[in-house]
Amino acid sequence: MFISNHQCAEQDTRPWHKTFEDSTLAFYMPGGKLKNLQAELLENGLDPEIPCLVISQAALPAQEVIRTTIRGLANLPRTAAPSLLIVGATGADARADFCVETSQLEQRHACDEIVLQLAQSAELPSN
Prior knowledge:
6 strands, six-stranded mixed sheet, globular, alpha/beta, Methyltransferase, Cobalt-precorrin-4 Transmethylase, Domain 2
């Protein structure tokens, strides 16, 4: 199923309940609103562990492929246009430049918090 992530003002929802469970969704130019799209997919019953691929600048020398899950979409960095978001089993074993697992995102956030707490509580020696 090929879908644009751009919608007209009068239509701000999609009929996800009509989507087949074994479908692969392709969003052309998903833009920087992955958090909104993630929420929409989850609110409509899609499993947060469904694999996703973001393909940026396909077939160009600067091409990047990032693999994650619906759960990790909101934490991905914005990619260069043109880009394509693939949601579904098709992306499960695809070769990617970067693999962002949800646990890695959670661990990274936890590590950032610990470093911040240590930096705030440590007395820095004066030179």
